[in-house]
Design goal:
By secondary structure, this protein is an alpha/beta fold. The chain has a single domain (about 1-240), classed as 3-Layer(aba) Sandwich (Rossmann fold), CATH 3.40.50. About 40% of the residues lie in helices and about 20% in strands. It is built from ten helices and ten strands. The chain has helices at about 10-20, 40, 60-65, 80-85, 95-105, 130-135, 135-150, 150-165, 210-220, 225-230; strands spanning about 1-5, 25-30, 45-50, 70-75, 110-115, 175-180, 180-185, 190-195, 205-210, 235-240. The strands form two sheets. The protein has an eight-stranded mixed sheet with strand order 3-2-1-4-5-6-10-8, sandwiched between helices. Helix 2 (about 40) links the parallel strand 2 (about 25-30) and strand 3 (about 45-50). Helix 1 packs across helix 9 (about 210-220), helix 5 runs parallel beside helix 8 and helix 9 crosses helix 10 (about 225-230). The chain binds NADP nicotinamide-adenine-dinucleotide phosphate. NADP nicotinamide-adenine-dinucleotide phosphate (NAP) binds next to helix 1, helix 5 and strand 7. NADP nicotinamide-adenine-dinucleotide phosphate (NAP) binds near residues 75, 90 and 209. It comes from Symbiodinium natans. This is NAD(P)-binding domain-containing protein. InterPro entries: NAD(P)-bd_dom, NAD(P)-bd_dom_sf.
């Protein structure tokens, strides 16, 4: 099985690449800075590195890179500098790339699982529990402030809404939006999954990037996990010891 990883040089994306390789998947990674990958990863026989700026790839090239892939995992995220946060060129990095990947599935000949690294700041409007948990004035005010002041937040919301509203009934494509809240470093440990938000933004739960990667790999590899979580936005939290 071949998996295409986007954002593989990022803090979570690298865990995804490493864990997929450890599970003997063939991995294709589209990265703009391959020198950021550790040497053992670069030399791994299971990894194909495609050096390109994903936003500059023409649709035909994207279709070519997706050929033979059974899953695409996006761990793209905005750079923390002025250009990454406010720059027009990458304003819709996450959502535009996701849209293009989904469009490209029409031209590849096998069903594709699309897995998005989303965020616990996303409230699923048709999930009553999500709406209830986010109903306080303080949280609504904070989310409004983030929408106004932080363009990458809007991009992540746009990507999640794209999955929720625009893929129903599209042949050959299934999706899952994984929602960690507060990302931390750390090893793979036990973790919990929930269908709906369980805590306020002000008491956000922690998740290690390694655990997010582990769950994404399970979604790709384990049919029962995929059946349970496809077309959903699972929340993932490190289990309390
Ligand atoms: N921080 C949190 O607590 C938190 C919580 C929930 C969700 N999230 C979301 O999770 C996602 C991943 O987080 P992370 O911390 O793993 O991200 P990260 O370490 O910042 O990695 C981001 C990845 O996106 C790539 N990228 C950035 N700008 C790009 C561009 N213009 N063109 C092509 N590639 C580009 C980076 O490539 P380069 O290496 O080349 O720069 C890198 O591979 C983000 O969307 C974030 O919003 C974060």
């Amino acid at each position: 099985m071949v998996v295409l990883v986007l954002g593989g040089t990022g803090k979570t994306g690298l865990h995804v690449v490493q864990q997929l390789l450890a599970r003997d998947f063939q991995v294709r990674a589209i990265v703009r800075s391959p020198d950021k990958l550790p040497t053992d990863v670069v030399k791994h026989a299971g990894l194909t590195i495609i050096t390109a700026k994903i936003l500059d790839l023409i649709d035909e090239a994207l279709v070519e890179h997706m050929a033979g892939c059974t899953a695409v995992i996006s761990c793209l995220g905005h750079e923390g500098n002025f250009q990454g946060i406010c720059g027009k060129a990458s304003q819709f990095l996450v959502s535009d790339v996701l849209r293009r990947v989904c469009r490209a599935t029409r031209d590849v000949k096998q069903p594709v699982k699309v897995i998005l690294m989303s965020t616990g700041l996303y409230t699923k409007p048709d999930n009553a529990e999500d709406v209830r948990v986010r109903s306080t004035c303080g949280q609504r005010a904070l989310l409004g402030l983030l929408s106004t002041c932080l363009p990458p937040h809007n991009d992540n919301m746009r990507a999640a809404e794209f999955l929720r509203t625009e893929l129903e009934g599209i042949q050959g494509i299934e999706w899952c939006g994984v929602r960690p809240e507060l990302l931390v470093d750390g090893e793979v440990t036990k973790y919990e999954l929930h269908e709906s938000l369980v805590c306020s933004i002000f008491s956000a739960g922690q998740t290690s990037r390694a655990n997010v990667a582990h769950f994404m790999c399970e979604l790709v590899q384990n049919p029962a996990t995929w059946q349970k979580w496809k077309a959903k936005f699972p929340l993932i939290y490190n289990a309390t010891p």
